[in-house]
Amino acid sequence: MIELVRYADRPDLRERRTDELSDFPEYMKHNAMSWRYWRRLYDDFPAFQLAAVDGDELIGEVHALSLPVQDGELPVGWDEAFGRGMEAGGGNVVSLLAISVTPERRGQGVPQLLIGAIRRTAAETGHESVIAPVRPTLKERYPLILIEHYVGWRRADGSHFDPRLRTHERLGGTIVAPAPRSMLIEAPVADWQEWTGMPFPEDGTYVVPGMLAPLEVRGGVGTHTEPNVWVRHEVL
Length: 236
Known about the structure:
The chain is of the alpha+beta class and 236 residues long.
């Protein structure tokens, strides 16, 4: 039976976290905002750092924080949401930051449980809504397509083309806007070569497997601006 617990109440679980829990590419772990604030999340916003366990097995987790959002004006993307929430110490809206599930438990509804838990916690703590800068699952297959176009793709039955966005809509989420400049990752080319296993011999625009948009290499520095999609959920 799957149980949702706060990391604050189970510090032993933090020690058991492994890279298998995340399906995010290596380069995403080197985002400047993450380096600056991630460890503080557990202390500053303990109610929104949750783990999913099945018996003694850690199978998933969700991380979120609250931030001020005035007149419905969304942050530019993941970076701004994270920074705004940490610098303000909270606010009226909760933003998801990451949802991860172990490979063998994917496709079993764990993300739905985690999203629901954050929505309930947001309601219990008096927040107005939950927003999410969603990383579309299939966008990596179409890195040259602008997120502004991708966000409008639908299947014949009217459901969203992207399975992750489809999940959010099935849970009652509303797609609000594309976030073309959601997360910035900038590093020397040598680091990018290590993270991706690809050589980048000269300046240029590179399509890299797993990236949602191209990598730009200029003057020995690689810059990747990841696009996301803003989704809003009502609290439960």
